[in-house]
Amino acid sequence: MTDALDESIGRRTALRMKYCDVEGKETIREIEPLALVFYWQSWFVYSWCRLRKAHRCFRIARICSLEAIESKREGPPIDLSERPWMKEWEGDQIEKIAFAADASTRGRIAEYFEEDSISVMEDGRLLVKEVFPTGDWVASWIMGLPGTVSILYPEHLKEKIRSRAAELADKNR
């Protein structure tokens, strides 16, 4: 996938892709890839989206299929040195979070959190305190950690995880 995107960027060509958004809805889009971007442990392609007539970031893992199309670029010129894709993430809610997790999670936690935000508690569990995005994906990520995790704050993140856990338990009786 990344090879085809990288080739399209280099050759300045367009692609047709089937894309599955975060809610599972699939769309067919024609894009003009401009840059590959690594952000929050995920790869994205920053592109001109012909469907939306706007520059957009697409998570590469959500691209179901790609095909080259013979078409000239239509998107407006843009200065990539200004990292325009960062504007898409400026709206993410970022706040102080704290949670305790089993020591076995250290490797995964270290992928997202700086060492100075991780400490070891008396019982051997890890205490993580950091300013971090608190969108839906964070609850999913925390729930995917092995062992037990205790959210200390914020309360709405604790409630979101409680609610999801109850829903999962209910659907798997």
Give an account of the 3D structure.
This protein is an alpha+beta fold and 173 residues long. The chain has 2 domains: 2-72 and 82-89, SH3 type barrels; 94-171, Alpha-Beta Plaits, CATH 3.30.70. It is 27% helix and 38% strand. The chain has 5 helices and 9 strands; from the N terminus they run H-E-E-E-E-E-H-E-H-E-E-H-E-H. It has helices at 2-11, 86-89, 106-112, 136-143, 155-171, and strands spanning 14-20, 26-39, 42-49, 54-59, 63-69, 94-101, 118-120, 126-133, 149-153. The strands form 2 sheets. The chain has a 5-stranded antiparallel beta sheet. Helix 4 (136-143) packs across helix 5 (155-171). The longest helix has 17 residues, at 155-171. The two termini are 39 Å apart. The mean pLDDT is 91.
Structure keywords:
173 residues, SH3 type barrels, Alpha-Beta Plaits, 2 domains, 9 strands, WYL_dom, WCX_dom, WYL domain-containing protein, CBASS_pafABC_assoc_protein
Briefly, what is this?
This is WYL domain-containing protein. The chain is 27% helix and 38% strand. The longest helix has 17 residues.
- Uncertain residue ranges: none
Task: Name the assembly state.
Answer: single chain
Shape estimate: elongated
* Sheet having the most strands: 5 strands, antiparallel
The average pLDDT score comes to 91
Please give the domain count: 2
SSE topology:
Blueprint: H1 2-11, E1 14-20, E2 26-39, E3 42-49, E4 54-59, E5 63-69, H2 86-89, E6 94-101, H3 106-112, E7 118-120, E8 126-133, H4 136-143, E9 149-153, H5 155-171
Antiparallel strand pairs: 1-2, 1-5, 2-3, 3-4, 6-8, 6-9, 7-8
Protein name: WYL domain-containing protein
InterPro entries: CBASS_pafABC_assoc_protein (IPR051534), WCX_dom (IPR057727), WYL_dom (IPR026881)
Domain WYL: 3-67
